[in-house]
Design a protein that fits this description.
Layout (H helix, E strand, L loop, with lengths): L1 H29 L35 E11 L2 E10 L4 E14 L4 E11 L3 E11 L5 E8 L6 E2 L2 H5 L3 E9 L6 E8 L5 E11 L5 E12 L4 E7 L10 E7 L6 H4 L1
Antiparallel strand pairs: 1-2, 2-5, 3-4, 3-6, 3-7, 8-9, 9-12, 10-11, 10-13
Length: 261
């Protein structure tokens, strides 16, 4: 009887040691470590697979994008340019790609044209979204509606990383606004990298700070510390003299070689 009790005691001690060994050394290796793609909130995440050390920014913590204004401008009869100015007030959240749509309407609120596309959004900054040459037939658009057509996927993106792609503007010069409008400006790459394939958009304002005209040009490459003269032209003369001019280099940091490497 005593021998049987001793055997049960020894077996219990051995089982307890084995259980502790399993819990300490085996079980942790059987469980998957926390990750940013496992569909549960674990590790240092602020939400499900977002925040903390995950590349995604939690959408529940992000402020909505704001469209400050959208306009349409005639190029020639039946062909119009559309532009929207979008503001992202999130200091460290950006979007690498998001789809959008312009819809144009005439004075009778009749739909006359549409253009879709995709863009990036940088943190704590404005993004000018430009679509050239939208065909409208014989209708004359006077209003454009701009909307994003998908839910944004926010990425944690430090503002100082975006600022490292710095393009400065200077020597802005407007000529012949009432006859043959042309605009030139100098852009300089002040960043630590060569920059490739980016748009430069000119936005002209009148005395009431309303947008008077817009135009766009494309730069294939701008080497580090290099300067380049950009040109903008318009076929129609202006009805007012522009009193303020913005030159907006639109560098997609997500598309640059240094980001992809």
């Amino acid at each position: 009887m005593w021998s049987a009790k001793r055997k049960f005691l020894y077996l219990g001690i051995v089982a307890g040691i084995l259980l502790v060994w399993f819990l300490v050394f085996v079980l942790p290796n059987l469980q998957n470590p926390p990750s940013c793609i496992d569909g549960i909130q674990n590790g240092k995440e602020s939400g499900i697979d977002c925040g903390g050390n995950c590349p995604r920014y939690c959408s529940t913590q992000a402020l909505d994008l704001t469209t400050r204004w959208s306009r349409v401008f005639r190029v020639v009869p039946g062909r119009y340019n559309a532009i929207a100015m979008v503001e992202n007030q999130n200091a460290t959240a950006a979007i690498s790609e998001i789809d959008y749509e312009f819809r144009l309407y005439d004075e009778e609120n009749v739909f006359v044209g549409r253009r879709t596309g995709s863009t990036y959004i940088t943190p704590n900054n404005r993004t000018a979204i430009f679509e050239p040459g939208i065909l409208t037939g014989s209708r004359v658009p006077i209003r454009t509606d701009f909307t994003f057509t998908e839910t944004p996927l926010w990425l944690q993106t430090p503002r100082d990383f975006v600022d490292s792609f710095s393009v400065a503007t200077s020597n802005i010069r407007m000529q012949n606004p009432f006859t043959n409008p042309t605009l030139t400006a100098t852009i300089k790459n002040n960043s630590q990298f060569d920059i490739f394939d980016f748009d430069v958009i000119a936005v002209l304002y009148n005395q009431e700070n309303n947008v008077l005209a817009v135009s766009q040009t494309f730069v294939e490459e701008l080497d580090q510390n290099a300067e380049y003269t950009v040109f903008f032209t318009w076929q129609d003369s202006f009805v007012e003299d522009p009193v303020r001019i913005e030159i907006l280099p639109q560098v997609n940091v997500f598309g640059q070689a240094v980001y992809n490497n």
